Every structure is written in C-alpha cells, then in structure tokens.
C-alpha cells in the first residue's frame, strides 16, 4: 500500500495524498482525488534558480519547428474562435511565439509572464481565449492559478493548455519530463477531467499533450 503523507494537494486541496515515487533527485506525491502528481514544496527551486533555468531556453518566434510544435494547440483552438477574438497567452516565456501566431490569424493577444512580461494589469481583464503552453507543470499553486485564469474567461471562452500527461507509474519512472527541475506538477487525463467537472466545462483532447476547456 502506498504511504500516506500530510501534504495537501496543490490543485484540489484534498488530504488524500500518497507517496507515488522517489528518484535520486526528488520525491513525487499523488492526489487520490484529482490524480495530480506533484513534487513537495520543500524540493522546489528558488525563484532565482527557476529563472536561471528559464533563461537557458531558446524559443525563437522565427523557428519553423517551434511553430509546428505550438500549432498542436493553435490549430484546434483557432477552429473554435470567432473572428478578432481577444486572448491572453499566460506564461509566455522569454520568446513569445504563440501570441504572434494567434495575432497573425487576426486575433488580439496580451501576454503575461511573471519573469519576462510581468504586467499584472493583464490579469484584471477578460478574454475570449487563454493559452498556457508548457506552463502548468511549473505552477507551485496550480489550483489557485488555474482558477484565477479560468475566472478571466468570458462565457463561451476557451482555455487551451499544453503539457505532457502522466500515463502510469511505470512510465513515469523512466519519463524524461519529470527530470526537468522546474517541472513540479504532472497532470493526467483524469486530472483534467476533474477540472472540467469542477468548472462545469466541456473538455476536449485534440492532441496527446493538448487539452481545451470550453466555458459553457
């Protein structure tokens, strides 16, 4: 039987949390309610260490390969949007690209990033769509942050997330995605289904690491 812990789940706040796995670097816990797998807070990087790691990223808006990667979210999302929709790219990173792709398709897009575009006024407006690509795995308080951006969506709006999904404990053991020291939360389809029920949202899975939530 898995060992119980006293850590609440950072997504749903449940106390039904058990030890999931440990490797040479970190421990991983899993919530029995929403199935989130997460690293305990005392093993998170400091803000300075986290930013230093992000500074190594080389996301070039002119890189066709990077654009193709982002199109896995952009393409199905664009099919859902009305002309000239207003959007927010949350966690845009050091080389904002998805926002440019959406703007090229005729939409207005604001960007927010706590390190590279810290304009908090963006988080006091409302949007027809919000994107977060390779972001949610970095959130130390995912429940709080995801509820906040969900509240910024207009009725009928779309939230698009891109993150690789947990498929099981054995696969997780050998999963390269968990080895990034800034990745501290890992979601499965069950986790996103849980969020969909909480938000009373329609949930779509257009790609292996993409999920769309529709605010009914």
TrEMBL record:
<dbReference type="GO" id="GO:0032259">
    <property type="term" value="P:methylation"/>
</dbReference>
<protein>
    <submittedName>
        <fullName>Class I SAM-dependent methyltransferase</fullName>
        <ecNumber>2.1.1.-</ecNumber>
    </submittedName>
</protein>
<keyword id="KW-0808">Transferase</keyword>
<dbReference type="InterPro" id="IPR029063">
    <property type="entry name" value="SAM-dependent_MTases_sf"/>
</dbReference>
<dbReference type="GO" id="GO:0008168">
    <property type="term" value="F:methyltransferase activity"/>
</dbReference>
<dbReference type="Pfam" id="PF13489">
    <property type="entry name" value="Methyltransf_23"/>
</dbReference>
<keyword id="KW-0489">Methyltransferase</keyword>
